[in-house]
Amino acid sequence: MKYLKANKLFYDKYLYKLEIHNSLAPIFRNKNFPYAREVLDKIQFNLEDSGNLFFKLGRLLRQVSNNDFKEAKYLLSEFQNQDNYTIRIQSPSLNIYTNNKHWLEKIATYSSNTITLWNPISLNIEPNVIITQDQKPYQYKITLTSKVDEAFGMWADNNLDKVWIGKVLRECIRTRQYTQGMYFYLRDEKVLHLISIMIGSSIKRVDKIVCNDNIDK
Predict the structure, then answer these.
(1) What CA–CA distances, in Å, run from 104 to 8, 70, 75, 96, 110?
(2) 132 φ, ψ to 5°?
(3) What band does 198 get if pLDDT is binned at 50, 70 and 90?
(4) For residue 214, pLDDT beyond 90
(5) Are the beta carbons of 98 and 85 closer than 8 angstroms?
């Protein structure tokens, strides 16, 4: 298993993230546990009926390894007996977010498919804060909604001492393309105030960038 450091909260709430690969990961989407139980019961029936592990998804027949089936049953039991966590599916990855590190370590010990466990770079991380190892010239990260006025792109081109925008985002702004989830960086709070006036409706979120040396002060 690989261990990585997270420099911000997951979903502005969780300190820890565990990633597992399992072919049955999609059955846990949206925490629809009755559906997950139904699928697992069908796989068990097929095993007893034919000696093979499989289930049907629409017209597709999905084969399942014994390891994935065993692990999925274990995960279902764990999910139904825990609170305050979030699941995200990026098939075949199953990502679990929580503040309960002991629980994730327990799952990781059981699972042979565990890929990565993220631990926070600091236990004092706050929502909308990104921690860096080194001092950065920019204090804010701005994440955008779907559209940005092209006039902002022209302003940015003339104020490179105040803002950093990548080439792809520059082009998307210039041609009024989709910018949802794309981001850029600002020098300081004074520039943030100005940008909020210019494109406030196009700002999805604002994250403050804090040097690791100062986070615990």
Answers:
(1) 18, 17, 11, 8, 10
(2) -115, 155
(3) very high
(4) no
(5) yes
SS3 115: strand
Would you state the structure tokens that stand for residue 166, as one six-digit string?
């990548």
Q: Which two tokens stand for residue 30?
A: 């949206």
- In DSSP notation, 49-111 reads HHS--EEEETTEEEE--HHHHHHHHHHHHHHHT--SEEEEEETTEEEEEES-HHHHHHHHHH-
Torsion sign (Cα): 28, 76, 82, 129: negative
What's the pLDDT tens digit per position in 158-172? 999 999 999 999 999
The torsion angle over the Cα atoms of residues 12, 17, 22 and 28, rounded to 10 degrees, is: -40
- Collapsing DSSP to helix, strand or coil, 162 comes out as coil
Could you give the CA distance from residue 65 to residue 54 in angstroms, rounded to a whole number?
A: 8
Mean pLDDT score of the chain, rounded to an integer?
Answer: 93
15, 9 in Cβ contact below 8 A? yes
Give the span between the Cα atoms of 61 and 52, in whole angstroms: 12
Tell me which residue of 128, 104, 125 sits closest to 19, measured CA to CA: 104
Tens-digit pLDDT profile for residues 22-63? 999 999 999 999 999 999 999 999 999 999 998 877 777 889
Q: pTM (2 decimals)?
A: 0.86
